[in-house]
Specification:
Number of helices: 15
Shape: globular
Structural class: mainly alpha
Distance between the termini: 61 Å
Length: 397
């Protein structure tokens, strides 16, 4: 590689690291809010990808088990700069909360920060960010009455019947409905994305994902190693989760509380601490691993719980263009994209709105934050700072 290409690639890596780390430090509010932050930064501000490619990547992440927002972040990094770009994007977005939870694993169990004013302000930031993202995405993904109806039905289904499998069922039904209704739909141009990885690498990732699910439990029984047992439990939990970070909590509780690896009180305290830090909820594994085996355990747990998501998104991306441009699949994707809008609105109401907007002053601050983002075009990190300061101010009213 000549020096000019090397310098260009290094600049790209540094840019991905800086942007993803800033998002990792400021993205509060859970997976739905993260998608809003990503949309504002990567699509609207930096234009690293177009609206359709972003929507299709979100739809793909909804199909796959694991943390959807992390998979979208990894996918964007891969599209920008290959596998290394995906790794850098993941590390930037994830490490801030991992480090915070490892450092404060013992301390946070003794602190009641859940009711702090700045925490409440950050929840209101999530309200503004998600509302802005939904409005922007809905304009493109639900342009007609049919797709608006699909979004409405998806909203109703996911809001009234909340379970780990409801979202998967809604997406599958929407894919079938979209296939039937839009199979004759034609677009002027095909969607094209650049994935600097080969199909062979993708196939290896998918085989490795399935192989570890089989091999790790066997190794656990054969070796009796506590470390292998930890990796197996976290890897399996990260592999079987549909519906976002909140769904992984009962799986992790089932793995570690009944076995006595961690007390229920410590588990719940750590969950509260995880809500107070930015980034993906899956970083709760860092807290659990640290409580059980020190900082080394925190790093191992984080690696194990996120590894399935990484293998799946790398395995699926190279096949995504051929699938989404297939006439038989396009209609299904249109249905899924419409359903994603309904799912996002559902998550916007619960838990984001119901746990954040509790009185008139909360609504006022959320409206101001929304205006900063949508009308005054201020960068998301400034909105986060304003939300934290505003939340502290509300606590004195």
């Amino acid at each position: 590689m000549n020096p000019a290409n090397l310098n260009r690639r290094l600049k790209t890596y540094i840019e991905i690291l800086v942007v993803s780390t800033r998002l990792g430090l400021t993205s509060f509010g859970g997976p739905t809010a993260h998608l809003g932050y990503f949309h504002a930064e990567y699509v609207r501000r930096r234009k690293w990808m177009d609206e359709k490619s972003y929507a299709d990547l979100v739809a793909l992440s909804q199909f796959l088990p694991g943390p959807a927002s992390s998979q979208v972040g990894i996918g964007i990094g891969v599209m920008r700069a290959g596998v290394i770009g995906g790794i850098i994007s993941f590390l930037g977005f994830t490490l801030p909360s991992v480090i915070a939870l490892i450092l404060f694993a013992g301390l946070l169990t003794k602190m009641d920060i859940g009711n702090a004013g700045w925490i409440h302000g950050l929840k209101l930031v999530a309200v503004a960010v998600v509302a802005h993202a939904i409005l922007g995405m809905a304009k493109n993904l639900t342009p007609d009455v049919t797709r608006k109806t699909i979004a409405l039905l998806a909203l109703i289904g996911t809001l009234l019947w909340q379970s780990a499998w409801t979202q998967v069922g809604v997406i599958l039904i929407a894919a079938l409905v979209g296939f039937l209704l839009f199979k004759q739909h034609k677009e002027e141009t095909e969607a094209k994305s650049t994935f600097p990885i080969t199909k062979r690498v993708s196939a290896i990732c998918l085989l490795l994902f399935a192989g570890l699910l089989v091999v790790l439990p066997i190794l656990r029984e054969l070796t009796g190693s506590v470390w292998i047992a930890m990796i197996d439990s976290f890897y399996r939990s990260g592999s079987l989760v549909f519906g976002g970070g909140h769904v992984v909590l009962p799986l992790l509780e089932q793995e570690f509380v009944p076995t006595g690896w961690i007390s229920k009180e410590s588990f719940l305290a750590g969950y509260g601490a995880t809500q107070a830090v930015p980034g993906p909820l899956f970083t709760f594994a860092a807290y659990l691993g640290t409580v059980m085996k020190g900082w080394q355990g925190g790093l191992v747990a984080t690696f194990a719980v996120f590894l399935p998501a990484f293998l799946l998104i790398l395995g699926a991306l190279t096949f995504w263009d051929s699938l989404r441009n297939n006439p038989k699949v396009k209609g299904a994707i249109m249905g899924v994209n419409a359903a994603v809008i309904g799912i996002l609105i559902s998550a916007f109401y619960y838990p984001i709105w119901t746990t954040s907007v509790l009185q008139a002053s909360d609504f006022v601050l959320a409206a101001v934050l929304f205006s900063m983002l949508a009308y005054w075009k201020l960068p998301p990190w400034m909105v986060v700072v304003a939300g934290a300061v505003g939340g502290m101010g509300l606590s004195f009213i």
